[in-house]
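Quick one:
INPUT:
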């Protein structure tokens, strides 16, 4: 059937996992394109094969561009710690945000580095996304309040109010280069061994297993041997690959390439130099010398995300996340469950992590319960919506899964945000 071939084309092109996004969501997108073009499925498939603009239109109708400034801010703390620990050795610090969606993540990287004392010429930030519409928006640098869900230090310096919108500071805009490209594109969209840090957050969750592996292959090639890979809060790499290992920073989804015994011997630091991943020690020293007042991490909506704030509960949650990343699921579950019972204010992030672990341990009913609690605390929690929809679908509740996916694909654009 032509519809199957169109779905297959999408799978090959962007690796989308119909279960994560919703088989319905993909069919709806295809039907919308068929309706708008007035083509039969067969003619439409031929058009795709011919390499027309319709390829991009179909992709645009399937992607989930949800993003905001300093989303999962602990990742930005890990970035600046890493950058500070290397600033003496690196002439030009190169960071990739892929996928960058409409640019909030890449601009947050620029703000974090600037606040940490880096100068424009010392930093190279690239933002890449498959969506032309999102890249245009990123280049324009004009946002609605929906993109500003977290407060951050010196916000007024970087986002200037303009009627009902906010415009990125002109100078900051020049810190980031945006480009439309497919992570899976051929030729590859970026150079090998180029980046000190890669942000690849909140994409894997939508990919099928094969695509995740292909993505990891590429990230491994593009990052420098001692580079830092930052994933989304609960994107556990241990279940996909052993070629990246947790770094041991305050951000639990921070990884570096796994060193073989030989490589680690060869790369062993001299006794006087700090090991490259001992973030906390080196940060203290470098932060003092670069910018002693640096502090962009402020108290945040503690219930919505894992954060970089250093209260005991957050530490415990991070510890549980790290254990889960390392494959110690039983221990991680015990810690996060205990945390939930002692926390004065329950947090969505804790319930979500518990759900992820329970699901990995093959306890779908318990996981479902945890995801429902996550959504009670944070009704827009993307991960919980996606995972719960998947569990509902597997349990035979198609309409329930569809309702959840509708919430998941409710993007800023569909809420009245300009595209
Ligand atoms: C949920 S957003 C994540 C944005 C940002 N990293 C964040 O965490 O806020 C997912 C983005 O992935 C992009 N995307 C999906 N498949 C892609 C691919 N194959 N190559 C590049 N970008 C892709 C989509 O266009 C969308 O903007």
């Amino acid at each position: 059937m032509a519809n199957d071939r169109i779905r297959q084309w999408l799978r090959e092109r962007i690796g989308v996992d119909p279960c994560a996004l919703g088989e319905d969501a993909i069919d709806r997108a295809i039907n919308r394109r068929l309706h708008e073009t007035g083509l039969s499925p067969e003619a439409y498939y031929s058009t795709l094969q011919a390499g027309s603009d319709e390829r991009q239109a179909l992709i645009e109708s399937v992607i989930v561009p949800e993003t905001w400034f300093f989303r999962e801010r602990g990742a930005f703390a890990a970035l600046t710690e890493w950058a500070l620990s290397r600033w003496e050795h690196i002439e030009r610090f190169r960071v990739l945000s892929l996928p960058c969606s409409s640019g909030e993540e890449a601009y947050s990287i620029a703000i974090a580095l600037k606040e940490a004392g880096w100068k424009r010429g010392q930093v190279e930030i690239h933002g890449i996304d498959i969506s032309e519409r999102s890249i245009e928006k990123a280049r324009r640098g004009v946002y609605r309040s929906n993109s500003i869900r977290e407060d951050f230090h010196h916000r007024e310096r970087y986002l200037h109010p303009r009627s009902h919108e906010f415009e990125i500071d002109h100078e900051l805009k020049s810190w980031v280069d945006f480009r439309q490209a497919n992570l899976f594109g051929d030729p590859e969209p970026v150079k090998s061994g180029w980046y000190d840090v890669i942000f690849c957050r909140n994409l894997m969750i939508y990919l099928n297993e094969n695509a995740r592996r292909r993505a990891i292959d590429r990230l491994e090639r593009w990052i420098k041997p001692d580079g830092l890979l930052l994933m989304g809060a609960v994107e556990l790499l241990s279940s996909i690959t052993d070629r990246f290992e947790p770094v041991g920073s305050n951000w639990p989804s921070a990884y570096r390439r796994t060193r073989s015994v030989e490589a680690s011997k060869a790369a062993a630091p001299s006794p006087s130099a700090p090991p490259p991943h001992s973030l906390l020690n080196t940060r203290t020293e470098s932060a003092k010398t670069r910018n002693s007042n640096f502090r962009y991490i402020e108290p945040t909506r503690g219930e919505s995300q894992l954060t970089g704030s250093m209260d005991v509960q957050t530490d415990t949650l991070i510890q549980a996340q790290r254990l889960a990343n390392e494959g110690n699921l039983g221990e991680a579950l015990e810690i996060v469950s205990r945390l939930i019972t002692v926390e004065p204010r329950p947090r969505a992030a804790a319930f979500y992590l518990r759900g992820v672990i329970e699901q990995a341990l093959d306890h779908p009913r318990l996981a479902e319960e945890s995801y429902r609690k996550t959504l009670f605390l944070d009704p827009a929690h993307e991960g919980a919506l996606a995972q719960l929809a998947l569990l509902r679908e597997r349990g035979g509740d198609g309409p329930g899964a569809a309702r959840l996916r509708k919430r998941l694909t409710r993007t800023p654009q569909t809420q009245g945000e300009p595209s």
